[in-house]
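User: Show me a protein chain along with its predicted structure.
Assistant: Here is one chain, sequence first, then structure tokens.
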Amino acid sequence: MLNLVEDVLPLSEFRADATNLISKARKNHRPILLTQHGKTSAVVVGIEEYQEMLETLEYLRKNNDAEQDILAGNGIAHGEAKKAIYARVKR
């Protein structure tokens, strides 16, 4: 979670100490919000947090796609799905 007191920095301050600040972001598992001319411009996150965000986004997209399929009537009944799975397992 972003800490608005510690994790918002001007780009010039980030440039002056980028290596340490990137290490801090990775260690704290918190993003660093960079500002430029007083406006937000970029976010620096550790690779683990970035990977987790990508995985969460992919999960949410698949979940949304499945929900849209069900709403469109493209789903199958639970009993039918169960039979199909058991048929595959018994092979």
